[in-house]
Amino acid sequence: MAAVLDIEKELVQQSERVKSVDLHPKEPWILASLYSGTVCIWNYHSQELVKSFKVAESPVRSAKFIACKQWVVTGADDKFIRVFNYNTMEKIAEFEAHTDFIRSVAVHPTLPCVLSASDDMLIKLWDWEKGWECTQTFQGHAHYVMQVAFSPKDVNTFASASLDGTIKVWNLSSPAPDFTLDGHSKGVNCIDYFMRGSKPYLISGSDDHTAKVWDYEAKSCVQTLEGHTNNVSAVCVHPELPLIITGSEDGNVHIWDRATYRLENTQSYGLERVWAFGCTKESNRVVIGYDKGTIMIKVLSSHSGGSMGIRVEEEEKKEC
């Protein structure tokens, strides 16, 4: 039985290039950082712009909610990390964190810490309870570090993706990587963790046009996802649904069955290259950032006759 696809409505508006997206864990908010240096927060229920503020004169490649503090943390091409209170717009912190572009920031799930990754080939750990002191520098990559992500099973562990073609896995207590996963033929742009039962896995996306699924414990690639015709720029494993989602500079979003690795659907919204995904627990929504805008989709899935049925409701495309 083929997967069923149903797009219920479509709202299209153009915007500046979106470099990162995030979903607030409690509020109905989308956070998007733009190539123009602006950061926006939208309410996806009312479809209204909540906040829009200029962070830098250079691209803001990564922005994340720190919901427990009512903050947004950003990393930009001007090498600075900036932190804002998203209610008052007060700037909480601003400091030069790296010597080159900041590609990614990741917020620790329980500790008062943020990771940053940069074109200077370094990853740094920042503690906001110590005045944003750098408490660890991680070194080992031989090219730009494109993304970092914390493990959902062991919060002292994180992974990094680099244009040196590797994924490295680290422990917060050591400046050197625990091990390296090497299998892509070109640079690695993106990474995400997911759990299958109690076993952790990684997924990576690469300039070799593929995504790879890695058995974290065996340190081996268990599946290569093929089908994109350009660089795979974003990957996401949905925390609530049995889905792997990949996005590419070919403009397509591929939705895969997490159990069988079968390609179930391909979505193309005409907004050019895909750059980022955002999703959160207790929600079936996915936010996608493109060259020309942001879209939220609601994914409804069910298994029938050994096959997955997917219904995609297109919720919004927003302009900043």
Automatic annotation (TrEMBL):
WD repeats lie at residues 95-127, 138-174, 181-224, 225-266. Keywords: Cytoplasmic vesicle, Repeat, WD repeat. InterPro entries: Coatomer_complex_subunit, WD40/YVTN_repeat-like_dom_sf, WD40_PAC1, WD40_repeat_dom_sf, WD40_rpt. It is found in: Cytoplasmic vesicle membrane. SMART domains: WD40. It comes from the Eukaryota. PANTHER family: COATOMER, COATOMER SUBUNIT BETA'-3. This is Coatomer subunit beta'-2. It comes from Vitis vinifera (Grape).
